Automatic annotation (TrEMBL):
It is found in: Membrane. Residues 38-89 form the Leucine-rich repeat-containing N-terminal plant-type domain. InterPro entries: Leu-rich_rpt, LRR_dom_sf, LRR_N_plant-typ, RLP23-like. Residues 1-25 form the signal peptide. This is Leucine-rich repeat-containing N-terminal plant-type domain-containing protein. Gene3D superfamilies: Ribonuclease Inhibitor.
Amino acid sequence: MEITSLFFFLVPLFFPLHLSPTTSAASFAAPYSSHCHDYESSALWLFKESFTIDTSASSHPEASPKVESWHLQEGGGGDCCSWDGVECDNITGHVIGLDLRSSGLSGYIDSHNSLFQLIHLQYLNLADNDFLESPIPSGLGHLSKLTHLNLSFSGFSGQIPSNISDLIHLLSLDLSENDNLILKNSDFNTLVKNLVSLEVLHLDYVDISSEVPHIFANSPSLTSLSLVSCRLRGEFPTGILQLPTLEVLYLDDNENLRAATFFRKS
């Protein structure tokens, strides 16, 4: 049977599958006690200055231009740990979280952007902005401590950089709803093979145009997998359905993907 719209609920849902721009994959709400490092304040300021604020760049009704409240002290520097959307480690003062979802950011981003100087980042959410069909920068590979990365709904295009697979600490990866993104078959396999700690993987509307890797069955922590409209083909690996942690699986609109035998209607 060909699958034109297929999704499975493996246990009752207690959370939405698609991480909306108002839903973060992690929370960094602890109060900070350390002053941030000047070079990180400068990097964040330069990041801010590389974009314009455009209310049409974010679609969420509660979008807010967080970076407009960022200010350096006279002579440079500033306590970036107090800036909206920024979270610092309580002990070291390093920036570990950046939540700029739905911030009205508009502009091109590349690997020379000062964002990639923030090498202690663990959580990065740039969802629901407009990066004007920039390729996803390979500079993300410098952020080796990332555990949560959300670039959904942000106007990225082109080939997903292969070094995303080097971010081996990722627990959550959401690149969905970027209509012009492409993930090569070899990179898809490497991503699944390397990111063994993934709990959430959302790649909706990424052009994958390949079979679903059987190696997904070796993903011991996977709870949510969404591959809607990815041009998948072949038979869906049954081993994925046997993962003990898997709670949500969406495979809608992959018309050349075939269901496993025991999911076919008689």
